[in-house]
Amino acid sequence: MNRLLTIVGDAWRQFERLWLGPVDARVYAIIRIAFAVVALINVIDLWPHRLAFFSGEGMTGHPAEQSGLSVFRQVESPAGVTVIFLVAAASAVWLGIGVMARPAAVLLWLWQMSYTSQGYPLVHGWDILLRIEALILLISPLGPSIPQWLAQVNGKPGAIRRSDGMASRHGLVLLQIQLAVVYWQTVWLKVLDAYWRNGEVISYFMMSTYARFPSAQWAHWDLASALLSHLTLLVEVAIPLLLWNRRTRMLGFFLGIALHGSIVLVSHILLFSLTVLVPYFAFLDGRDLERWSGPLRRRRILEG
Prior knowledge:
Layout: H1 2-20, E1 22-24, H2 25-46, H3 50-54, H4 78-97, H5 101-118, H6 125-138, H7 146-154, E2 166-168, H8 170-191, H9 194-197, H10 201-206, H11 222-244, H12 249-266, H13 270-277, H14 286-303
Antiparallel strand pairs: 1-2
Helix pairs in contact: 2-4, 4-5, 5-6, 6-13, 8-11, 11-12, 12-13
């Protein structure tokens, strides 16, 4: 019996350390700001299409609406839809600043649920990822506000109290798992596709309407297409593993930024890369932040 209690106790302590252990709350603040910026860009991107896809007078119409939680069921007028968009944009701004952050997180989660239900012809993979990220933020600590952070940096009243500087790590773990699922599920689906396996997919993509600079020359660049296709698969498998290991974390960041930066450069798929990069910050900890902020702190001391 004592042996069983010891095993259960050890298992609980491991669970508590992994999911509920203390982490630097500033990491949550960075994630909150990054998500808010991407959410705001997404609202701006959808703005020109708000009446066509979200009002009762649009092309889908409310009778065609999919099931799911949506405020657009109660709001059909163009003016009302415009107000919803403005509230979503304002919520993203307030969440980023960190003032009234929790109500703003609730409103953004409700916005994500609503527009992905009503505007389903516009929904892409990154919209679903944003919805998942919004839910995780909703149940996670949100970290210090930007005014609190600046006050701490400048040593002014209103800075973060020591007791407020740590938070439970459960939200970070959920985001880490989510990023790994995104990459590894993507790889699993890609290796089942003949064009990914034979290395032709990059050539086809670079000749498609999704390419920023489409060129028929890619039909003759078989080797380059094969190398880039297979290298992409390897990088997507490796990134979560590299990010989980402190010694290789910066390499994981470099590969991820290089991968998604190249996607932004050669394609019209900006929001996908921005959305996927948000969970990267969940792999940071207080030591990473201290290492990055050390030179700035020393410079301020020398200048002061």
